Amino acid sequence: MEAPYQVSVRLVQRENGKYGSGHICGGVVITQRLIVSAAHCTFAPKKKGFRRAREYVLIMGSTFLSKKDTTTLQYNVQMVVNHPSYDHETYINDITLFFINGYIPWNSEVTALPLSTRQYSVGTKCVVSGWGSQETGGSRSNSLQAAEIPIISRAECIRSYGNIPVTQICAGYMHGGTDSCQGDSGGPLQCHNTLVGIVSYGGKCAEKDYPGVYTNVIKYTNWIYRINNSFDYSIYKNGSLQLTVWPTILAVFILASY
């Protein structure tokens, strides 16, 4: 599997109709029970609010969206924790954490992607992956896709989108042609085998002068650690729990080393 840390975030209600039809976003494995994704993937516009944990099922270890492999793993979600300052209008602080109701075995095809400990320079080649559309308005890909794209300068990003915060970065090509797209949201921007960005938004897919915008993961490392340390890794329960501070800390993060 090209991106063994890649997760398909699905809605249970849609998934019950046909396997694979529930996919709405991507996600990234960062511990044996924690997946990071985009906060806008948890927002339900019709409800004007956020979905509950019980509405999700997470699939990993698969190359194909609509077909289970012998390596496929499936988990219900125990808790969903959105960043408290997420703004659905601007997509600022577009990051969420899914705490799954089970352990991912490290002897499986699934592995965690280490959180980046550095800000990469302009031009650094990175990889974005997912099952998203291959053109604006197109259907989602049934097989996991990946593309190499470079980090774009902040100045170029601002020329495209206006004054973006340092908690967002841009990646792609100013001439267009290669980009993330609908259905890739929440998935990884991987640079040198570390998690640097989370797919957030953009113009039309692969549009000239509009590179992809990604949540800048390094700006949220402390928040991720703090929330992760509030989970009790010995408790398993399906449902719609809100964030609770637990006394026991059993998580182990994989950190990038240089």
Automatic annotation (TrEMBL):
InterPro entries: Peptidase_S1_PA, Peptidase_S1_PA_chymotrypsin, Peptidase_S1A, Serine_Proteases_S1, Trypsin_dom, TRYPSIN_HIS, TRYPSIN_SER. GO terms for biological process: proteolysis. GO terms for cellular component: extracellular space. It comes from the Eukaryota. It is found in: Secreted. Keywords: Disulfide bond, Hydrolase, Protease, Secreted, Serine protease. Residues 1-229 form the Peptidase S1 domain. The keyword Nucleotidyltransferase does not apply. Gene3D superfamilies: Trypsin-like serine proteases (2.40.10.10). GO terms for molecular function: serine-type endopeptidase activity. The keyword Transport does not apply. Its main location: secreted. Belongs to the peptidase S1 family. CLIP subfamily. This is GH24378. The gene is Dgri\GH24378.
